[in-house]
Request: fold
Amino acid sequence: MKTILKTGIVGAIAAVLVASVAVAGGQEPQRRGPGMDGRGGPGGRGFGPGIMRELTDEQRDQVRAILQEERGREGRGGDMNLRRQLEAELLADVPNDLKIEDLKSQILAAQAEGLSKHVEVQKRIAQVLTPEQRAKGRERLAQARERLAQAPEGRRRR
Reply:
């Protein structure tokens, strides 16, 4: 009876995992990492949409230098490798709970490190901006939050 229950639980976890991968695969790919992709300025969504268009040439050069320096540092591939290891362990015939917990801890540590790096880069970029530009960025972020709050439930990002 215990074997049937364990098999059922593992099967349910595997089904949820496969379904989440399938759903994620059908979504628009996320644009991550430092960059000026038009979706919120330098570093992704850091300072509100369009901030790069409002910078002087000198400020753009400074921001690009900061981002280029960050790109030269160690990449974020380790987090994805850990996630793949976790998925493989979850799909094992007999998942090792200790290994799963260890991988979860390693993923959380990698995410915390990535967030710390992101915050540090954003702080450096914010110092390139004038007080007026920072104020305008705050205003745009507030407007974006307001639009999100007013969006129909199906159109909100999760």
Notes: The helical segments are 2-25, 57-71, 77-90, 97-126, 131-150. The longest helix spans residues 97-126.
